Amino acid sequence: MQLFDAHCDMLYKLWRQPNINLETDKSLQVSISKLSKKKKPIQCFAIFVPEDVPFIHRYHVALEQVSLFQQKVLNKYPEVKLLKTKSDIDRLHDDDIGAILTLEGCDAIGDDINQLDVFYQLGVRSVGLTWNYANLVADGAHETRNGGLTNFGRDVINYLNNQKMWTDLSHASEKSFWEALEIASYPIASHSNVYRLCPHVRNLRDEQIQALFKKNGIIGITFVPFFTSNVKPSIADLLDHIDYLCSLGGENNIGFGSDFDGIDETINGLATYDDYDTLINQLLIHYPEQLVQKFLYHNFYQSIPY
Predict the structure, then answer these.
(1) Contact 267/223 with Cβ under 8 angstroms?
(2) Given pLDDT bands bounded at 50, 70 and 90, which one contains residue 304?
């Protein structure tokens, strides 16, 4: 079965360790060798600038990650294809690996829409408004004041709409979520789970999930353990989130955003990208094959607007 994973942090690890072997290093939860075992998988690679980078340097650090992606991934592994359009996906061969660049939080663009345009020109096709905290676009999920969008944030979403890019609402505060959802043409939540089942601030409440579904948005079920259960979770706990989303009418709105390489702890049985096989087997026990393929690939593929 084909896989479409909407979020991993391999580029962040590469930036931290530029000489890491992207094919074989055992510290990588997603590696080139693991991806190559699948039939033309699609992996979204997040550009993530951590909080310890001074604000004035974040744009340059984000560009460094794009440069490393070009040098260490695209140039070294010709089977990895940067996807800028849906047609690029349709042209993939069975041995190819599709790569979509995403921006995890708008800290890197400051207050300059032209810097966002640079990322678009470099291939970014999905933009998260925030990470966990406030920036010049919006408040993040961990801001206790729960502020919403700024005027500049509205300009950013209008830009994303015009360019037919995803507006990623994972990490947004509740108020930011609602204000963004109102104006975003192509909203998703790349890596979030269900608040009702696991009350973490990064998860989505029923009303948010249903509103996202009404706008044809996809929620990427994530493998972050503490977004899945308050105790050490298993794949069965992850399936509970899928069941719940289906009960809210999400058959065509469920995908996966593992957050591999952005997590140190893992769900039992889901330690690396290779373990997608275990997840697939469990999904096939509970759901028809056609529905499983929707979850794994087609729902995110169908939602691509560009």
Answers:
(1) yes
(2) very high
